[in-house]
Design brief:
heterodimer; A: alpha/beta; Rossmann fold; 6 helices; about 25% helix; B: alpha+beta; Uridine Diphospho-n-acetylenolpyruvylglucosamine Reductase, domain 2; Uridine Diphospho-n-acetylenolpyruvylglucosamine Reductase, domain 3; Alpha-Beta Plaits; 4 domains; seven-stranded antiparallel beta sheet; five-stranded antiparallel beta sheet; 15 helices; 16 strands; about 35% helix; globular
Chain lengths: ~250, ~475
């Protein structure tokens, strides 16, 4: 079974992001970039399927500018067999990414596509679902456990207030939630091997997709700063403030 | 309970204000001790001065009434240097916690002695700078205490000890004088550098009340590697290989047993499944991809030589932090076995022989004890931890470890090392000071103490007895 995994290059989630001075965007100058955490989980799951003998080949795909090849190399170091880079400039919207991934799906004919449920920069939570619609493949979103059984894929989903298990016919799409697995470290011998693995580069035109834009980023601003707390003198003052200033008791 | 006389209590209150003198049992127990548990705290009072003038007033009173003072910072020391066991008055510097006079040109900032290390680190970060002395207790430890113990920690190989970051300091001596030492100068060869004498003096010469601290450029894109290494000799080869080619920010090591305990008790992931006797943790700045390529080439070389069996590298800040926890959580993890700790150093080149000798001695005498090794090694400092078997009573364990200590320190002496690499001498190590300092040296230290503190009121009984 061939598995396609999508990975996205995003700001490292431990980095404190800052808005640009003019509020036009997030400041990405000299900021540490990393693989989107949900995509990392997707790669780990695909590699585990391969280690279990279920998957025969794992292909990592990323859409973006040249530097996102670093994240493809990370996926290759984690155990993916080969990479595909769809080179595209600027801010690519989920719909365009879904169309580009559809192009890759048509080329590669994977039985399973695993994506992160969302990226931590755009927070859109759309690409997997859109890809499902475009390819007419069934989808299991927010997966916390997946298991291939014959021609079926059982997906345990994290839904409000509990878990839901669904069974999908293959080929299918899965988007990962946080508890699906704990990704491994990239071992140094595997990083070296990854350098020799095949990495193909496509343009959107190769996949028959025109990059369009429907969304304009108007403004980025940091959250309002929290006011410093104060120390009250006694219980009476506390009650007074809760009543009259915070208005949380009456 | 405090048995302080009402008259002295009143005099102390006159110095610092009524509410700033504490004599309740909880406060005495809290302020009277550091992280060590070998002695019981028994101070007679705790004072919390709010200014340098108030510290001076307390010292004047102590001089007039011959009262012993114990200066106290974050009380995270591991040698009993801040213990008050004999009715001393604890002078807690918590309230001298202002950070002011930031000087962007000199990259210095003036800190009260009570500024918490993490507070200075956060301040530096806000200015786009970096305070590089860092260790597990940075959220509690204070600058005054760091200076008095010359605190080290995990970045010493690259940035040195606290000593290297003190541009100036103010000290109230045991004779009540306020000394303003070095005043932030970079170059100052006009006579003895008394500042350096005060750093690491563990409060025996006076009370550090303020310091001008140097700040640095922040490191960029820190990347962490953990390597599996078959033996200590190979650890040294790995260190030599890397130091010859890259500027390392840190080079730490820990044993397989340390890793097993941390993984089991902190729910952390093993870096890789290949077992190894020791693990080396390296941290370096990755300015460009060429830095990583360089590190990869060094790794390949080490594998070819048989010095390294496997390794991982952090791909994100989260992974770097998780890998650091494998090393930094060891102390907390093994605290459940109330370990007998030794903080020893030799020159870097002698570490492997030294370690082998210590291990042989302990294994021969006490085959039932578990030994956990970890440490900074890039600077020659290793921490030897002997874990208490659950069934062994505490008193017997301590007594047996006391014997081990003597053997260990004899080995330290033979290797011309130090019985206290970064924790200081305090109460716990003073019986062993002579293993690393000559009689002539100790005699001079005592004379210096008498010049600064003629009445012997400053942290008496610490480092040595007069």
């Amino acid at each position: 079974m061939k598995v396609l995994v999508a990975v996205k290059r995003v700001v490292d989630y431990n980095v404190k992001v800052r808005a640009k001075g003019d509020g036009s965007d997030v400041d990405l100058n000299n900021v540490k970039m990393a693989i989107n955490p949900f995509c990392e989980i997707a790669v780990e799951e695909a590699v585990r399927l391969k280690e279990a003998g279920v998957a025969t080949e794992v292909i990592a795909v990323s859409v973006g500018e040249k530097p996102c090849q670093e994240q493809i190399r990370t996926a290759l170091a984690l155990g993916a067999d080969r990479g595909i880079h769809v080179e595209a400039e600027g801010r690519i919207e989920p719909l365009v990414i879904a169309k580009l991934l559809k192009g890759v799906v048509e080329k590669e004919q994977p039985q399973l596509v695993i994506l992160g449920k969302q990226s931590i920069d755009g927070d859109n939570n759309q690409t997997g679902q859109m890809l499902g619609a475009l390819t007419n493949m069934p989808q299991g979103t927010f997966a916390s456990e997946i298991k291939v059984e014959g021609e079926k894929l059982n997906v345990v989903r994290e839904v409000d207030g509990g878990l839901q298990t669904i069974s999908l016919s293959l080929p299918a799409i899965v988007t990962t939630d946080l508890r699906l697995n704990e990704p491994r470290y990239a071992s140094l011998p595997n990083i070296m091997k990854a350098k020799k693995k095949q990495l193909d580069v496509y343009s959107p035109a190769d996949l028959g997709v025109e990059v369009t834009s429907h969304i304009t980023l108007v403004r980025v601003e940091p959250p309002a700063e929290r006011q410093a707390g104060i120390k009250v003198e006694d219980v009476a003052q506390l009650v007074d403030k809760l009543k009259n200033e915070a208005k949380v008791i009456s | 309970m405090s048995n302080i006389s009402p008259e002295i209590l009143q005099a102390l209150q006159a110095c610092v204000g009524e509410s700033r003198v504490l004599t309740d049992p909880d406060s005495l127990a809290l302020y009277g001790r550091d992280w060590t548990r070998a002695h019981a705290p028994a101070p007679s009072a705790v004072v919390l001065p709010g200014s340098i003038a108030e510290v001076q007033a307390v010292v004047e009173l102590a001089r007039a009434r011959q009262l012993a003072l114990v200066p106290s910072g974050g009380r995270t020391g591991l040698s009993g240097g801040a213990m008050a066991c004999q009715g001393e008055i604890v002078v807690a510097l918590d309230r001298l916690n202002r950070i002011e006079d930031f000087n962007p040109v000199d990259r210095t900032v003036r800190c009260g002695a009570g500024v918490v290390t993490a507070q200075l680190q956060a301040f530096a970060e806000e200015q786009g700078l970096f305070y590089p002395v860092d260790f597990a207790s940075s959220g509690s430890s204070q600058i005054g205490g760091n200076i008095s113990t010359n605190a080290g920690g995990i970045k010493v190989i690259r940035h040195g000890m606290t000593r290297d970051w003190v541009a100036g300091l103010k000290l109230v001596t045991g004779s009540g004088e306020l000394l303003d030492l070095n005043r932030g100068l970079v170059k100052n060869n006009a006579g003895y550098d008394l500042r350096q004498l005060v750093i690491g003096a563990e409060g025996t010469l006076g009370i550090v009340v303020e310091a001008t601290m140097q700040l640095a450029r922040p490191p960029q894109n820190l990347t962490v590697m953990v390597l599996g290494v078959p033996d200590m000799a190979a650890v040294m080869q790995v260190l030599e290989t890397w130091q010859g080619a890259m500027d390392l920010q840190a080079f730490e090591f820990f044993s397989e047993l340390a890793l097993q305990k941390v993984v089991a008790h902190q729910g952390l992931q093993r870096p890789f499944e290949t077992p190894a006797a020791f693990y080396a943790l390296l941290e370096f700045e990755q300015h460009t991809e060429a830095d990583l390529d360089q590190a990869m080439a060094l790794f390949e070389h080490c594998v070819e030589q048989g010095w390294v069996v496997d390794g991982v590298v952090s791909q994100s800040v989260a992974q770097a932090q998780a890998l650091w926890r494998l090393r930094e959580d060891i102390s907390e993890t093994i605290s459940r076995w109330t370990p007998y700790k030794n903080d020893i150093s030799t020159t870097i080149v002698r570490v492997p022989d030294f370690l082998a000798e210590v291990e042989a001695v302990v294994a021969r005498a006490y085959p039932d004890f578990e030994i956990v090794w970890f440490g900074h090694i890039g600077d020659g400092n290793v921490h030897l931890n002997v874990l208490k078997p659950d069934e062994l009573p505490m008193a017997e364990f301590q007594q047996r470890c006391g014997e081990v200590s003597r053997w260990v320190f004899e080995i330290v002496q033979r290797h011309e090392g130090s019985v206290s690499a970064e924790h200081g001498v305090g109460l716990l190590k003073k019986d062993y000071l002579h293993y690393s300092r000559s009689a002539a040296e100790i005699a001079i230290m005592k004379q210096i103490k008498q010049v600064f503190d003629p009445q012997g009121i400053m942290n008496p009984g610490k480092i040595f007895d007069l």
